[in-house]
Amino acid sequence: MCRLILATGRFDAGAVLDAAVDMSCGRTADHDGPTNVHPNGWGAVWRQPDAPNGLAVHRDVRPLGESYDDSPIRGLETPFLAIHARHATLARNQGLKCTHPLERGGEFPWYFMHNGFLPTVYQLLGLPESEFDSGEYFDYIVPKDARRLDEASTLERLTALPPGGSSGNAIAVNPEHAYVIHWTTPGNQAPRYFGMYTLSTPRFRVIASEVVPALAPPEHWEPLKPDHVVEIPLAPVTDPVLS
């Protein structure tokens, strides 16, 4: 199970990074789930005009709380940033190949971050067994050659998942849009752990797996609508970077 945070607009990238560290280390944990600490690597994707396709990526297999200052994120000037801190559900699925964001390359790349465990999604891909559920979920929920995610068809795909697993919460990013998928399996025993929250100000918006008081007092946060896909347009790479 993992922690997700996304920021868009005019924000302090270092503050968003610190918020991700707080979540990954359990400092902001206030939920009904079994996991407070998320030590199995982390990654980020952000808007950067001089990067290929306008998106830069960082991955590190070390715990976020031990390695965040070795990343280029603090001090970034960017209008979009998403961070993922990981707790591997299965011990075998660790290392760089399992560190998010997962990537689908090509002329129109996608990057994917998942919080949850979906061990049955492989069945809908026609695979004999599951090897890495987040990778299989990525292949399933973002169809090949897709350039956008339609909310209705995405929710249809989610409700078609065979029983089992926990959450399909995810951030999917391509050069034109970012998407936040907020969906938890019906009857899940940890709805607060898999809830997501949003903070909106005149300058920026944050969506995160937990309320982070260091970014704003708890009363300024709102629960994100469940069974919902948020689409966030990304500025063209030729636009000036927002500070």
The coarse overall form would be globular
* Sequence of strands across the biggest β-sheet: 3-2-4-1-10-9-11
Q: Could you tell me the radius of gyration in angstroms?
A: 17 Å
Measured as a percent range, the helix fraction is: 10-25%
Organism: Streptomyces silvisoli
Protein name: Class II glutamine amidotransferase
InterPro entries: Ntn_hydrolases_N (IPR029055)
What does this structure look like?
This protein is of the alpha+beta class. Helices cover about 15% and strands about 25% of the residues. It has helices spanning about 15-25, 65, 135-140, 150-160, and strands at about 1-10, 40-45, 55-60, 80-85, 100-105, 110-115, 170-175, 175-180, 195-200, 205-210, 220-225, 230-235. It has a seven-stranded antiparallel beta sheet with strand order 3-2-4-1-10-9-11, covered by helices on one side. The chain has a five-stranded antiparallel beta sheet with strand order 5-6-7-8-12, covered by helices on one side. The relative contact order is 0.21.
